[in-house]
Design goal:
By secondary structure, this protein is an alpha+beta fold. The chain has one domain: GHMP Kinase, N-terminal domain (Ribosomal Protein S5, domain 2, 2-Layer Sandwich). It is 28% helix and 28% strand. The chain contains four helices and ten strands; from the N terminus they run ββββαβαββαβββα. Strands 1-2-3-5-4 form a five-stranded mixed beta sheet. Strands 6, 7, 8, 9 and 10 form a five-stranded antiparallel beta sheet that branches. Strand 1 and strand 2 form a beta hairpin. The longest helix has 33 residues. The radius of gyration is 19 Å and the shape is globular. Bound molecules: uridine-5'-diphosphate. The site of uridine-5'-diphosphate (UDP) has 12 residues, from helix 2 and helix 3.
Length: 250
Protein backbone atom coordinates (compact mmCIF):
# COMPACT_ATOMS: atom_id res chain seq x y z
CA UNK A 1 0.00 0.00 0.00
CA UNK A 2 1.49 3.28 -1.05
CA UNK A 3 1.92 6.46 0.88
CA UNK A 4 0.37 9.81 -0.13
CA UNK A 5 1.23 10.50 -3.75
CA UNK A 6 0.36 13.01 -6.46
CA UNK A 7 -1.09 10.29 -8.67
CA UNK A 8 -4.80 10.84 -9.21
CA UNK A 9 -6.71 7.59 -9.18
CA UNK A 10 -10.26 8.96 -9.59
CA UNK A 11 -11.06 11.56 -12.30
CA UNK A 12 -13.54 14.45 -12.27
CA UNK A 13 -16.34 12.19 -13.48
CA UNK A 14 -15.75 9.87 -10.57
CA UNK A 15 -14.25 7.14 -12.73
CA UNK A 16 -11.11 5.18 -11.89
CA UNK A 17 -7.96 4.94 -14.02
CA UNK A 18 -9.32 1.87 -15.84
CA UNK A 19 -12.75 3.44 -16.39
CA UNK A 20 -14.55 1.59 -13.59
CA UNK A 21 -17.09 3.05 -11.19
CA UNK A 22 -16.38 2.82 -7.45
CA UNK A 23 -18.46 -0.37 -7.09
CA UNK A 24 -17.36 -2.14 -10.26
CA UNK A 25 -15.32 -5.34 -10.41
CA UNK A 26 -12.67 -6.07 -13.00
CA UNK A 27 -13.75 -8.70 -15.59
CA UNK A 28 -13.70 -12.23 -14.16
CA UNK A 29 -13.58 -15.49 -16.13
CA UNK A 30 -13.48 -18.94 -14.55
CA UNK A 31 -12.82 -22.26 -16.25
CA UNK A 32 -13.18 -25.66 -14.58
CA UNK A 33 -11.36 -28.94 -15.13
CA UNK A 34 -8.37 -27.55 -17.00
CA UNK A 35 -5.82 -30.13 -15.78
CA UNK A 36 -6.11 -33.84 -16.56
CA UNK A 37 -3.94 -35.23 -13.75
CA UNK A 38 -5.42 -33.34 -10.80
CA UNK A 39 -8.55 -34.55 -8.99
CA UNK A 40 -10.02 -31.11 -9.48
CA UNK A 41 -8.81 -27.93 -11.14
CA UNK A 42 -9.77 -24.42 -12.12
CA UNK A 43 -8.32 -21.42 -13.91
CA UNK A 44 -9.32 -17.86 -13.17
CA UNK A 45 -8.66 -14.57 -14.92
CA UNK A 46 -9.55 -11.64 -12.73
CA UNK A 47 -8.55 -8.36 -14.34
CA UNK A 48 -4.86 -8.85 -15.09
CA UNK A 49 -4.52 -11.77 -12.66
CA UNK A 50 -4.14 -15.27 -14.09
CA UNK A 51 -4.23 -18.08 -11.55
CA UNK A 52 -4.30 -21.86 -11.93
CA UNK A 53 -5.47 -24.18 -9.14
CA UNK A 54 -5.02 -27.95 -8.81
CA UNK A 55 -6.63 -30.03 -6.05
CA UNK A 56 -5.50 -33.49 -4.93
CA UNK A 57 -7.31 -35.58 -2.36
CA UNK A 58 -8.67 -36.37 0.05
CA UNK A 59 -5.66 -38.72 0.27
CA UNK A 60 -3.78 -40.24 3.21
CA UNK A 61 -1.94 -37.42 4.94
CA UNK A 62 1.81 -37.79 4.83
CA UNK A 63 4.00 -37.65 6.92
CA UNK A 64 1.79 -39.61 9.30
CA UNK A 65 2.27 -37.29 12.27
CA UNK A 66 0.36 -34.60 10.35
CA UNK A 67 -2.78 -36.79 10.29
CA UNK A 68 -5.76 -35.67 12.32
CA UNK A 69 -7.82 -38.72 13.48
CA UNK A 70 -11.06 -36.72 13.39
CA UNK A 71 -10.84 -34.72 10.18
CA UNK A 72 -9.01 -33.89 6.96
CA UNK A 73 -6.34 -31.21 6.90
CA UNK A 74 -6.33 -28.66 4.13
CA UNK A 75 -2.95 -27.72 2.74
CA UNK A 76 -3.19 -24.76 0.43
CA UNK A 77 0.08 -23.74 -1.19
CA UNK A 78 0.10 -20.31 -2.80
CA UNK A 79 2.95 -19.75 -5.20
CA UNK A 80 3.80 -16.79 -7.37
CA UNK A 81 5.67 -17.64 -10.57
CA UNK A 82 8.96 -15.79 -11.08
CA UNK A 83 7.54 -14.28 -14.28
CA UNK A 84 4.18 -13.24 -12.79
CA UNK A 85 5.26 -9.76 -11.72
CA UNK A 86 7.14 -6.81 -13.25
CA UNK A 87 10.29 -7.34 -11.27
CA UNK A 88 11.25 -11.04 -11.40
CA UNK A 89 10.20 -12.72 -8.19
CA UNK A 90 12.76 -14.97 -6.53
CA UNK A 91 11.38 -18.53 -6.85
CA UNK A 92 10.33 -20.44 -3.76
CA UNK A 93 8.24 -19.63 -0.72
CA UNK A 94 8.75 -16.33 1.08
CA UNK A 95 7.03 -14.99 4.19
CA UNK A 96 4.19 -13.51 2.14
CA UNK A 97 3.46 -16.80 0.35
CA UNK A 98 3.53 -18.71 3.65
CA UNK A 99 1.08 -16.25 5.19
CA UNK A 100 -1.26 -16.36 2.18
CA UNK A 101 -1.16 -20.18 2.11
CA UNK A 102 -2.12 -20.25 5.79
CA UNK A 103 -5.04 -17.82 5.54
CA UNK A 104 -6.40 -19.56 2.42
CA UNK A 105 -6.15 -23.00 4.10
CA UNK A 106 -8.03 -21.68 7.13
CA UNK A 107 -10.73 -20.06 4.99
CA UNK A 108 -11.34 -23.26 3.01
CA UNK A 109 -11.35 -25.39 6.16
CA UNK A 110 -14.51 -23.62 7.36
CA UNK A 111 -16.38 -24.55 4.18
CA UNK A 112 -15.24 -28.14 3.59
CA UNK A 113 -16.87 -30.99 5.55
CA UNK A 114 -13.44 -32.10 6.76
CA UNK A 115 -14.86 -34.45 9.42
CA UNK A 116 -15.96 -36.78 6.63
CA UNK A 117 -12.33 -37.59 5.76
CA UNK A 118 -10.28 -38.32 8.90
CA UNK A 119 -6.51 -38.81 8.57
CA UNK A 120 -6.43 -37.35 5.06
CA UNK A 121 -5.08 -34.23 3.47
CA UNK A 122 -6.63 -32.17 0.74
CA UNK A 123 -3.86 -30.42 -1.15
CA UNK A 124 -4.64 -27.21 -3.00
CA UNK A 125 -1.92 -25.82 -5.27
CA UNK A 126 -2.47 -22.20 -6.26
CA UNK A 127 -0.14 -21.01 -8.99
CA UNK A 128 -0.15 -17.32 -9.82
CA UNK A 129 0.94 -17.00 -13.45
CA UNK A 130 0.29 -13.28 -13.76
CA UNK A 131 -0.29 -10.88 -10.89
CA UNK A 132 -2.14 -7.57 -10.89
CA UNK A 133 -3.24 -7.13 -7.24
CA UNK A 134 -5.85 -9.29 -5.57
CA UNK A 135 -4.16 -12.63 -6.29
CA UNK A 136 -5.02 -14.17 -2.89
CA UNK A 137 -8.74 -13.65 -3.35
CA UNK A 138 -8.62 -14.71 -7.02
CA UNK A 139 -6.74 -17.86 -5.95
CA UNK A 140 -9.18 -18.60 -3.14
CA UNK A 141 -12.20 -18.10 -5.41
CA UNK A 142 -10.74 -20.52 -7.96
CA UNK A 143 -9.68 -22.97 -5.23
CA UNK A 144 -13.30 -23.37 -4.09
CA UNK A 145 -14.34 -24.22 -7.64
CA UNK A 146 -11.48 -26.72 -7.99
CA UNK A 147 -12.56 -28.39 -4.70
CA UNK A 148 -16.06 -28.87 -6.08
CA UNK A 149 -14.56 -30.20 -9.31
CA UNK A 150 -12.67 -32.75 -7.16
CA UNK A 151 -16.02 -33.84 -5.68
CA UNK A 152 -15.23 -32.59 -2.17
CA UNK A 153 -18.37 -31.84 -0.12
CA UNK A 154 -18.68 -28.28 1.15
CA UNK A 155 -21.27 -26.05 2.86
CA UNK A 156 -20.93 -23.65 -0.03
CA UNK A 157 -18.13 -22.28 -2.15
CA UNK A 158 -15.93 -19.63 -0.55
CA UNK A 159 -15.91 -16.36 -2.46
CA UNK A 160 -13.03 -13.92 -2.23
CA UNK A 161 -13.30 -10.21 -2.90
CA UNK A 162 -11.44 -7.05 -1.91
CA UNK A 163 -12.29 -3.41 -1.41
CA UNK A 164 -9.93 -0.56 -0.73
CA UNK A 165 -9.48 3.17 -0.42
CA UNK A 166 -8.12 5.38 -3.18
CA UNK A 167 -8.11 9.20 -3.26
CA UNK A 168 -9.95 9.02 0.07
CA UNK A 169 -12.86 7.02 -1.39
CA UNK A 170 -13.86 3.43 -0.69
CA UNK A 171 -13.89 1.38 -3.91
CA UNK A 172 -14.26 -2.25 -4.92
CA UNK A 173 -11.48 -4.51 -6.23
CA UNK A 174 -8.21 -2.54 -6.47
CA UNK A 175 -6.00 -3.00 -9.50
CA UNK A 176 -2.20 -2.86 -9.30
CA UNK A 177 -1.86 0.91 -9.66
CA UNK A 178 -4.61 1.49 -7.08
CA UNK A 179 -2.96 -1.03 -4.76
CA UNK A 180 0.39 0.74 -5.13
CA UNK A 181 -0.85 4.31 -4.72
CA UNK A 182 -4.05 3.88 -2.69
CA UNK A 183 -4.45 4.23 1.06
CA UNK A 184 -5.93 0.89 2.08
CA UNK A 185 -6.83 -2.60 0.87
CA UNK A 186 -9.17 -5.06 2.54
CA UNK A 187 -9.15 -8.57 1.08
CA UNK A 188 -11.90 -10.74 2.47
CA UNK A 189 -13.72 -14.01 1.79
CA UNK A 190 -17.21 -15.11 2.69
CA UNK A 191 -19.39 -18.19 2.55
CA UNK A 192 -22.51 -16.72 0.94
CA UNK A 193 -24.91 -19.39 2.22
CA UNK A 194 -24.07 -18.76 5.89
CA UNK A 195 -22.79 -15.19 5.54
CA UNK A 196 -19.64 -16.19 7.47
CA UNK A 197 -16.52 -14.09 6.92
CA UNK A 198 -13.68 -16.60 6.65
CA UNK A 199 -10.83 -14.29 5.67
CA UNK A 200 -10.33 -10.65 6.55
CA UNK A 201 -7.04 -8.84 6.22
CA UNK A 202 -6.22 -5.17 6.12
CA UNK A 203 -3.37 -3.21 4.64
CA UNK A 204 -3.47 0.54 5.38
CA UNK A 205 -6.06 2.43 7.40
CA UNK A 206 -9.84 2.78 7.30
CA UNK A 207 -12.15 4.66 9.62
CA UNK A 208 -14.90 2.56 11.16
CA UNK A 209 -17.45 3.83 8.61
CA UNK A 210 -15.09 3.20 5.71
CA UNK A 211 -14.43 -0.31 6.95
CA UNK A 212 -18.16 -1.02 7.04
CA UNK A 213 -18.57 0.41 3.52
CA UNK A 214 -15.70 -1.76 2.24
CA UNK A 215 -17.16 -4.93 3.77
CA UNK A 216 -20.58 -4.07 2.32
CA UNK A 217 -19.15 -3.51 -1.19
CA UNK A 218 -17.34 -6.87 -1.11
CA UNK A 219 -20.38 -8.69 0.25
CA UNK A 220 -22.56 -7.39 -2.59
CA UNK A 221 -19.95 -8.38 -5.16
CA UNK A 222 -19.65 -11.84 -3.60
CA UNK A 223 -23.17 -12.76 -4.74
CA UNK A 224 -22.21 -11.98 -8.34
CA UNK A 225 -18.89 -13.87 -8.09
CA UNK A 226 -20.64 -16.84 -6.50
CA UNK A 227 -22.88 -17.03 -9.59
CA UNK A 228 -19.84 -16.98 -11.85
CA UNK A 229 -18.40 -19.95 -9.89
CA UNK A 230 -21.65 -21.89 -10.39
CA UNK A 231 -21.88 -21.01 -14.07
CA UNK A 232 -18.29 -22.20 -14.63
CA UNK A 233 -19.08 -25.55 -12.99
CA UNK A 234 -22.30 -25.92 -14.96
CA UNK A 235 -20.45 -25.15 -18.20
CA UNK A 236 -18.04 -28.03 -17.57
CA UNK A 237 -20.73 -30.56 -16.74
CA UNK A 238 -22.99 -29.45 -19.60
CA UNK A 239 -20.13 -29.91 -22.05
CA UNK A 240 -19.72 -33.49 -20.79
CA UNK A 241 -23.40 -34.45 -21.16
CA UNK A 242 -24.00 -36.87 -24.02
CA UNK A 243 -25.91 -35.20 -26.84
CA UNK A 244 -29.57 -36.13 -27.02
CA UNK A 245 -31.06 -37.73 -30.17
CA UNK A 246 -32.01 -34.96 -32.62
CA UNK A 247 -29.61 -32.40 -31.07
CA UNK A 248 -26.56 -33.79 -32.82
CA UNK A 249 -24.94 -31.35 -35.20
CA UNK A 250 -24.22 -32.70 -38.66
N1 LIG B 1 3.63 -8.14 -5.97
C1 LIG B 1 4.84 -8.10 -6.61
N2 LIG B 1 5.89 -8.82 -6.09
C2 LIG B 1 5.76 -9.58 -4.95
C3 LIG B 1 4.52 -9.59 -4.32
C4 LIG B 1 3.47 -8.86 -4.84
O1 LIG B 1 4.98 -7.44 -7.63
O2 LIG B 1 6.73 -10.23 -4.52
C5 LIG B 1 2.48 -7.39 -6.56
C6 LIG B 1 1.53 -8.33 -7.29
O3 LIG B 1 1.05 -7.71 -8.47
C7 LIG B 1 0.41 -8.50 -6.29
C8 LIG B 1 0.36 -7.10 -5.70
O4 LIG B 1 1.72 -6.74 -5.57
O5 LIG B 1 -0.80 -8.91 -6.91
C9 LIG B 1 -0.34 -7.00 -4.38
O6 LIG B 1 0.25 -7.86 -3.45
P1 LIG B 1 -0.43 -8.21 -2.08
O7 LIG B 1 0.65 -8.71 -1.16
O8 LIG B 1 -1.29 -7.10 -1.62
O9 LIG B 1 -1.34 -9.50 -2.42
P2 LIG B 1 -2.57 -9.69 -3.41
O10 LIG B 1 -3.26 -8.35 -3.51
O11 LIG B 1 -2.01 -10.13 -4.73
O12 LIG B 1 -3.41 -10.74 -2.77
Amino acid sequence: MGTQSDIKLINEEGLRNDGRKFNELRPIRIEVGVLNRADGSAYIEWGGNKVLVAVYGPREAFPKHTQNPSRAIINARYNMAAFSVDERKRPGPDRRAIEISKVISEALEVAVFTEQFPRTSIDVYIEVLQADAGTRIAGLTAASVALVDAGIPMKDMVVGCAAGKIDGKVVLDLNKEEDNFGQADLPMAIIPRTDEIVLLQMDGNFSREELEQAVELSKKAATYISNLQREALMAKYKSQEPEKEGERSE
